[in-house]
Amino acid sequence: MTVTNQDQAAVDKPAIGSQAGPQDALDSVSKRNWWLVALGPLAGLALGLILPDSLSFEGRAVAGAALWMAIWWITEAAPIPVTSLLPLVLFPLFGMGTMAEVASPYADTVIFLVMGGVILGLAAEKSQLHMRVALLTIRLVGTKPSQIVLGLMMASAFISMWVSNTATAVIMVPIAVSILSLVRSIDPDAVGKKFAASMLLGVAYGVSIGSTATVIGQPPMALMKGYLMESYGFDLTFGTWMLVGVPWAAVMLFIAWIVLTKIVYRPEIDSLPGGKELIRDEHAKLGKMSTAERRVGYIFAAAIFFWIFVPFIAQIGWVAENIPFLSTINDAQVAMAAAIACFIVPVLSRDIVDR
């Protein structure tokens, strides 16, 4: 979101210990195990040499490059995004396509769909909208120990529908730990190993399950969309995916909650005195919705509307005749439009600095 007043300097000033600086990056490079860096290309070369001649040169080169990349990915000898760029160098070099042919998949519409979703998620984090959604969900579901677990799972699942799994876990785990601490302050006996385990595992399962509900929930979903379009010419729209994904995620989330709280890690107590007040107070501390929260919420709502409803609206006879361009709008366009809006829609800098 764009900051519009003179507090920009305060926004840009990094918090102590918040991010690694250039020197930290250099230290990381200097400490890297260079034998792991060398292992990738050496293993790839060895594989290319030992494969039978019945396999074409290009086939052996692809196999070697795949092994090289796999080793670097697994060992993180090089940053994961950097490893992903190796085909741009290797494939044209060994005659597996021109630079234009190799580079074109990097600009696939699926990439922009995921990029837009990630930017939307970051906007929700920066504005603290995610925190309000999480606490409100828990408050609505209930404050008994098993209900708190369900609320955390539902909040984790909902956020992971739009935000990456890792980012959602980073968001929700501190909330879970904070709730555990608050519950312990009310009733020390309530926070046993089972309740704590069900809380943290609930976040993990909620994140994993919720991300299957939308096509931007995690990269494999978007890759499947791209594969179906490229191989079969089938455009799996955002709304169509949700028609299957949301019911599936809801059922699996309920099953996971039953297993966690009723079978494997049944909480030590069935009720928590003062639990409702605890969650209510935490929610009240957030205060009224800030300008940033509201505007990010509007952008989210608009994106969801275009993703889910516009494809169906575009098929209505009158709309198809009078507003034909609606049928040409695809999910990646919506994602990028929402992402651009996050950068150009202004908010007050205090909405960010104070948080």
Automatic annotation (TrEMBL):
Keywords noted in UniProt: Membrane, Transmembrane, Transmembrane helix
UniProt superkingdom: Bacteria
Signal peptide: none
Pfam families: Na_sulph_symp
GO molecular function, one term: organic anion transmembrane transporter activity
InterPro entries according to UniProt: SLC13A/DASS
GO biological process: carboxylic acid transmembrane transport
Residue ranges, annotated region (Disordered): 1-23
Listed name of the protein: Sodium-dependent dicarboxylate transporter SdcS
